[in-house]
Write a structure and sequence with these properties.
The chain is α/β, with parallel strands linked by helices and 422 residues long. It is built from 8 helices and 20 strands.
Length: 422
């Protein structure tokens, strides 16, 4: 007999870009008049899908649209998808932090959520005081919290600092304590966003072990969002893939992970040209990864070529920086012209130049990689341009290649050379 603890029916969430409200008094009055007559909001009929790869024209964006699913008691549901797919919005709706635009959410029992580092913590209170504050927010009595207090402190590893104000904690300490509170106060449904990435490897293992105990030993339900596919595979009993605010796939964990990775492979392209100017400082014309080859193999050099034109004169040094992430969105390495002693990019307005960043035999594993691009002025200053996931490329395994660098969270330190192509 099924025991559904969470049921989501036709959930949608719409946001308006820019100012709060519709923007005009007449539209606000129209929205109010429809509402008091019990009719559908006329502004729900407009809006665009939240696809960041396409330039939109509407002021209304659907972060989620027509979401329907059920979760059984004791199930661990992994929710995966690229950045901007709607994962965090869905968890905020389930946690009742915000309300859905349309649809109904039905739950049984107490919900505990950990969506951001130190969620619900007051910075001026000590760690111990925040345990009681968080417990009260979750609906626990003082005696219930007291019975779990020592277990929470011991699990978090913050016992030495537990009577110190939380504002003096590092982000890692805050997330350790916040997770311990959320997990040990025995919620019926535990909702965890990708905050565990803040903790170290040892704590991540402890946290995953605790979530397994919660679901298997105590029959409680966990909703888990992560970009780490290995954690999703080891922890979850079912998987959901979100794509541009809609459910792309719902099924077993392995099938969900395979669906996500396969769909990312379909969108790979190791060369991309830009038709529009991206900002007033720099224009990117193209970016390519080993663009003269159809296939990229794991034992080859990686050559990243960026063609650009500065649109303003500057007497400061300009650098191009790239960050390479694997298919689990784990950072593999940062490379760029800033590593060179002398400037590579010419700080001259109106001159088209192509910069080649060559990484000597990084020994990447087979898989999908994406590149984040930054153009930086004067090194320490904020980037003049930043583009996320600008390009996806697929690395194929070479015969005899057994390295595991790309599965490890951290940095590679290969030999890097940068030069300007004349």
């Amino acid at each position: 007999m099924s025991d559904v603890i969470l049921k989501v029916e036709n959930i949608s969430k719409q946001y308006r870009l820019g100012l709060v409200g519709t923007g005009t008094l007449s539209d606000d009055m129209k929205k109010w008049w429809y509402q008091i007559r019990g009719k559908e909001n006329p502004f729900l009929k407009v809006g665009e899908v939240n696809d960041r790869s396409v330039q939109g024209s509407s002021d209304y964006v659907w972060a989620l649209q027509d979401i329907n699913f059920e979760v059984q008691r004791g199930e661990v549901l992994g929710i995966i998808g690229k950045n901007g797919a709607g994962k965090s919005t869905l968890l905020k709706l389930l946690s009742r932090i915000t309300t859905p635009t349309t649809g109904v959410i039905k739950t049984k029992g107490r919900i505990s959520s950990l969506l951001e580092v130190g969620t619900g913590f007051h910075p001026e209170l000590t760690g111990r005081e925040n345990i009681y504050l968080n417990g009260a927010i979750l609906g626990m009595t003082k005696s219930e919290i007291r019975s779990k207090e020592e277990e929470i402190i011991d699990f978090s590893g913050c016992d030495r600092y537990i009577d110190t104000p939380v504002k003096r904690y590092s982000s890692g300490m805050r997330v350790r304590l916040a997770f311990a509170v959320a997990a040990f106060l025995e919620p019926d449904i535990l909702i965890v966003d990708e905050v565990l990435a803040v903790g170290d490897i040892e704590f991540q293992k402890k946290a995953i072990g605790k979530m397994q105990d919660i679901s298997q030993g105590h029959g409680r339900t966990v909703l888990f969002v992560s970009h780490n596919m290995s954690s999703v595979e080891s922890l979850c009993t079912a998987g959901m893939v979100l794509n541009n605010g809609r459910i792309g796939f719902m099924g077993s964990t392995q099938d969900a992970v395979n669906f996500y990775i396969t769909n990312r492979k379909k969108s790979t392209n190791n060369y991309l040209e830009f038709n529009d100017k991206l900002n007033d400082f720099v224009e990117i014309h193209s970016i390519g990864v080993n663009k003269t080859k159809d296939d990229i193999f794991s034992d080859e050099d990686i050559n990243i070529e960026i063609c650009l034109t500065l649109l303003k004169d500057t007497d400061k040094r300009v650098d191009v920086a790239t960050a390479i992430y694997n298919e689990s969105d784990q950072l593999i390495t940062n490379v760029g012209t800033g590593m060179m002693k002398d400037a590579v990019v010419e700080s001259v307005k109106g001159v088209k130049q192509c910069i080649n960043i060559s990484i000597k035999k990084p020994q990447l594993n087979e898989g999908i990689y994406n590149i984040l691009l930054r153009v930086i002025e004067n090194r320490a200053n904020a980037p003049k341009l930043k583009i996320e996931e600008i390009i996806l490329f697929h690395v194929k395994k070479s015969i005899g290649h057994n390295k595991v660098y790309s599965k490890v969270k951290g940095f590679l330190s290969p030999e890097i050379n940068c030069n300007r192509i004349q």
